Amino acid sequence: MAVSELPTETAPLSPQGGKLRASPYELLARRPGLFGTGMFVIGLTLFVSGLLISATDPAMKYPTVAIGALAVFVGMKLLALALFGPGFDLGLWLSALWILLVLLAAIFVGILPVAESRDIATTLTTTARQRPDLLSSHPFGTDASGLDILGGVMYGARVSLTVGLGAVLIGMTIGSAIGIAAGYYRGRVDTVVSVLTDSMLAFPPLILLLAMVSVLAPSVRNVTIALAVISVPTYVRLARANTLVFAQREFVLAARALGERSRSIMFRELLPNVLLPIVSFSFLIVAVLIVAEASLSFLGLSVPRPTPTWGNMIASGQDRFGDHPHVVFMPGMVLFFTVFSFNRIGDRARELWDPREAKI
Questions:
Q1: Phi-psi domain of 61 (left: phi exceeds 0; alpha: psi -120 through 50; beta: other)
Q2: Homologous superfamily of 149-357
C-alpha cells in the first residue's frame, strides 16, 4: 500500500456531511490561556468597577466586587493551567502571597500612609462608620469612633501574628523536647509524660485559657504565654508519636551500638527527622491560635484598646451590624483569609514532610 493510501484521522462528520463543531469544553481545554486571559480581564474590570461604585449603593457594590473576584480567580486558574500545567497549585501560591502581604503590612504599618486607627482624640472631625471607598483616605471605611479600619486591620495583624507565631515557637520548643524524651526513653518517663499530657488535654482548653488570661494582665506577652501553655500538650503528643517512628530505625540503633550518648542521639539523630513533621503541623496550630486570640479579644480578655486587634474590631461593630456591616466584615474577612491560608499551607506541608501522610 502506498503511503498516500494510508488511512488518516479526520474530524468526525455531522449527519449532513460537514465537520462537527467543538464543544465549549473542548475549546476551553485546547486554549485555556486565551480563555483565562479574557476571564481575568473581565473579572478585574468588574472588581475595580465594584470598588468604584458609590458607597451609598451597597446593593450593587458588593455583588459586583464578589463576582469580579470570582472571575479573576477563575481566570488566574486557567492561566496557571496554560503556563505551568495541571500540577500547579494556584490556591497554595495565593495563600503564601496573602501571608506575605499580611506579614509585610504588620511589619511596616508604622511607616505606611494609613489614616489614624488608634488615637480617638485625633478623629473627632472624622465621619464615624464611613463606608468603604477605594478612592478615599479610608479604603476600608471607619468604625464608630472614626478610626480607620484598614490601619486597624494592619495593627491587628501585628498582634495576631506575634501571638500566634510566638506561642507556637514556645510551645514547639518545650513540647518537642518533652515528647522526644518520652518517645526515646519509653518506660516510666513515657508513662509520666503521657499521664500529664492526657490530663491537660482532657481539661477543657477554653476554660483553662480563660482562667489563665483572667489571672494575667492583658498584654501581648501574657496572651502569648497562655496560648503557648495550651499548645504544649499537642506538641508533646506529636513529637512523641514521630519519635516512636524513628527510634527503632537503623541509624539510631547504629548510634547506640557506637556508644553515643542518649542526649546526642536525641539531638543529632532524632530531632532533624522529627522536626519537619512538627513544623508542618505548626502552620495549622498558628491558625488555631490566631482564632483563639481573636476570640479572647472579642470577649474583652486579650489586648485592650487603644491597640486594635481583629477580635476587638469585630466586637466594636456587632451592635450596628445590620446598618454598618463593613465594621465587622472587613476585619472578619482578613481573619478568615489569614486562617484559611495558614491551613492551606499546613495541609500541603504535611503532605510533603509528614511520613505518616506519605502516599504509598
A1: alpha
A2: MetI-like (1.10.3720.10)
Return the number of other C-beta atoms located less than 10 Å from residue 99's C-beta.
19
Residue 60: predicted pLDDT: 75
Query: What letter does residue 11 receive in the DSSP assignment?
Result: P
| CA-atom Rg of the chain in angstroms | 27
> Tell me, what's the pLDDT at 3?
45
Which amino acid type is present at position 150?
L
Of the candidates 231, 232, 212, 230, the one whose C-alpha atom is nearest the C-alpha of residue 222 is 212
Distance CA(321)–CA(332), nearest Å, equals 12
Q: Is 107 exposed, middle or buried (0-12, 13-18, 19+ CB in 10 A)?
A: middle
What SS3 class is residue 142?
A: strand
Distance CA 280, CA 230 (A): 18
Q: How far apart are CA 296 and CA 313, in angstroms?
A: 12
Looking at the whole model, is its pTM more than 0.85? no
pLDDT tier at 359, thresholds 50, 70, 90: very low
- Say how far apart CA 334 and CA 326 lie, in whole Å: 12
Distance in angstroms (rounded) separating the CA atoms of residues 89 and 135: 33
The C-alpha cell at 172 is: 514547639
* Alpha helix ranges (H) inside the chain: 24-30, 32-52, 58-84, 90-108, 149-185, 187-202, 205-215, 220-246, 250-257, 262-264, 271-298, 310-316, 326-353
Q: Are 170 and 229 in contact (CB under 8 A)?
A: no
pLDDT of residue 171: 94
Q: What is the DSSP letter of 308?
A: -
Residue 282 identity (one-letter amino acid): S
Lowest-pLDDT range, 3-17, 156-170, 245-259, 301-315? 3-17
Q: Which of 37-46, 57-66, 173-182 has the highest mean predicted lDDT (pLDDT)?
A: 173-182
CA–CA dist 124, 85 (Å, integer): 54
In sequence order, the 6+-apart residues with CB closer than 8 A to the CB of 134 are 51, 52
Every domain of the chain and the residues it spans: 20-88, 149-357
Mean pLDDT of 167-171: 95
